[in-house]
Design a protein that fits this description.
By secondary structure, the protein is mainly alpha-helical. The protein contains ten helices and no strands. Helix 1 packs antiparallel against helix 2 and helix 2 crosses helix 7. The protein starts with 21 loop residues before the first helix and ends with a helix.
């Protein structure tokens, strides 16, 4: 089932200059989540398990293999829709887990949905997810696609409202490189 992630396209309501699939997105979230963990440890003196963040980032949206990518404006339109979608995600999670041999299943349960035990780690993954969406908006606008202008502002405000110093650091230190050419990025 995980190999089907490459068939799930994101940003279905937006005109894209380059389509992004769930597999690409999940890898980028894993990279960013890992970086946030390293920033936490090296810059802010924390003790976050950066490797665990990377793995959580890889799996954070796997239920979308079954549900598809529900556009954010639809998913969060009302509490009724949001709660119904949460239930759909729970059913999808159980379905995915049922395909894993019972002896291995418990090793995957905490990867596919947020757990109370790893609530702090999941806050970093959520920030990485938002940063990945923010990067997509910047990249689309860089190619002249203004359809992502409002989404960029909304997502940036969402990141800022998380008050996560690691995310702020990532935005300050790494986001400018996304706006550079390949030749400029080595400088």
């Amino acid at each position: 089932m995980l190999s089907r992630m490459k068939y799930i396209n994101r940003w279905g309501l937006m005109r894209n200059t380059r389509n992004e699939n769930l597999c690409e997105h999940s890898l980028e979230v894993a990279f960013v989540a890992h970086a946030l963990g390293i920033i936490n440890n090296e810059i802010f003196g924390g003790t976050i398990d950066a490797q665990r963040l990377a793995v959580l980032g890889m799996y954070h949206d796997v239920t979308e293999i079954i549900t598809g990518d529900m556009p954010t404006p639809v998913k969060y339109y009302s509490s009724v829709i949001r709660n119904a979608y949460k239930e759909v995600e729970n059913v999808a999670n159980k379905e995915l887990l049922s395909g894993i041999p019972k002896k291995l299943r418990n090793r995957y349960e905490g990867l596919m949905q947020e757990t109370q035990e790893e609530k702090e780690l999941w806050s970093f993954v959520k920030a990485a997810d938002k940063i990945s969406a923010y990067i997509k908006c910047l990249e689309e606008q860089k190619t002249g696609n203004t359809d992502f202008a409002d989404a960029e502002k909304t997502i940036k405000n969402s990141i800022d409202s998380m008050h996560l110093q690691e995310a702020d650091y990532y935005i300050e230190k790494f986001i400018p490189a996304y706006m550079q050419t390949l030749d400029e990025s080595g400088e």
